């Protein structure tokens, strides 16, 4: 299960999906289709391996684990607060298989974890990430893993309502 945040990752993950022997669930955040911030140069025959996260921003104060649309929200927030805080932004890109090694390495260094995803906070994939980090990295954490997601309400198809929920 993959969910790219940038055009180059979308192309690379799609190539990997087509060349793999198994099935791939490819989640495409539609808000990124015409997004200028998601644009990227796609090298010829570029592939992105499954299960390999990408560190989008280095930082020492907080590990932000994210994917899809919310990668851009996290990068923008980290940039706005860069003078005050050093936030590391990890774009997991591949939900299953998951790059636990990159996530755990970051949590060991920062001792703090924030999981940010587009889905609802309650019962979303972010809850699984938070539970995994809290359970396996407890001794390295300075506090509980926190989550940020959308409100617990259906998403309307009207663009104004959809934007408000996100």
Compact summary:
With 166 residues, the protein is α/β, with parallel strands linked by helices.
Describe this structure in words.
Helix content is 33%, strand content 16%. With 166 residues, it is of the alpha/beta class. It is globular, with a radius of gyration of 16 Å.
Task: Name the beta content range.
Answer: 15-25%
> What is the approximate shape?
globular
State the strand order across the main sheet.
1-3-2-4-5
* Discrete helix count: 5
List the uncertain runs. none
Query: SSE order, as H and E?
Result: HEEHEHEHEH
Report mean pLDDT, rounded to a whole number. Answer: 92
Tally the beta strands.
Answer: 5
Helix content: 25-40%
Distance between the amino and carboxyl termini: 22 Å
Q: Identify the quaternary structure here.
A: single chain
Largest sheet: 5 strands, mixed
Backbone structural class: alpha/beta
Backbone CA Rg: 16 Å
């Amino acid at each position: 299960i993959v969910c790219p945040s940038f055009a180059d990752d979308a192309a690379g993950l799609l190539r990997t999906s087509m060349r793999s022997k198994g099935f791939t669930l490819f989640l495409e955040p539609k808000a990124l289709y015409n997004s200028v911030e998601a644009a990227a140069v796609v090298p010829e025959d570029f592939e992105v391996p499954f299960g390999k996260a990408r560190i989008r921003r280095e930082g020492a104060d907080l590990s932000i684990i994210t994917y899809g649309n919310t990668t851009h929200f996290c990068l923008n927030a980290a940039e706005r607060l860069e003078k005050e805080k050093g936030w590391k932004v990890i774009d997991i890109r591949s939900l299953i298989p998951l790059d636990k090694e990159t996530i755990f390495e970051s949590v060991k260094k920062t001792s703090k974890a924030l999981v940010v995803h587009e889905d609802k906070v309650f019962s979303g994939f972010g809850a699984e990430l938070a539970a995994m980090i809290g359970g396996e990295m407890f001794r390295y954490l300075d506090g509980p893993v926190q989550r940020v997601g959308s409100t617990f309400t259906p998403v309307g198809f009207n663009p104004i309502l959809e934007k408000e929920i996100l």
